[in-house]
């Protein structure tokens, strides 16, 4: 797969996600936009993982809207807690996971626990 087709594929996936969320009822679209902003800051840096995460978010919100599930029932009383739990399903490429690993490694080296 060439770099160009990878970029075009990722762009297509993003555009498809945005088209899907633009069709949501207003309150779900507002939640999608807010979660998207949060997930962009803390989500996976890997394009494939990020695309999958946003596609899954669109699936969740579309299904919830179709079932008439109130948005508060979807995200709960603490939306940040919901977002963190949602993010935990997509650890690949997350900068925070890399930094946690780097911190643990540095401390282990300093403690003489790594060869």
Give a written overview of the molecule.
- The protein has six helices and no strands.
- The chain has one domain: Orthogonal Bundle (c-terminal domain of poly(a) binding protein).
- The radius of gyration is 17 Å and the shape is elongated.
- The mean pLDDT is 86.
- Helix 1 runs parallel beside helix 3, helix 2 packs antiparallel against helix 3 and helix 2 packs across helix 5.
- It has 115 residues and is mainly alpha-helical.
For this entry, give a set of tags.
single chain; 115 residues; mainly alpha; c-terminal domain of poly(a) binding protein
Lay out the secondary structure.
Blueprint: H1 3-22, H2 26-42, H3 47-67, H4 71-75, H5 79-87, H6 95-110
Helix pairs in contact: 1-3, 2-3, 2-5
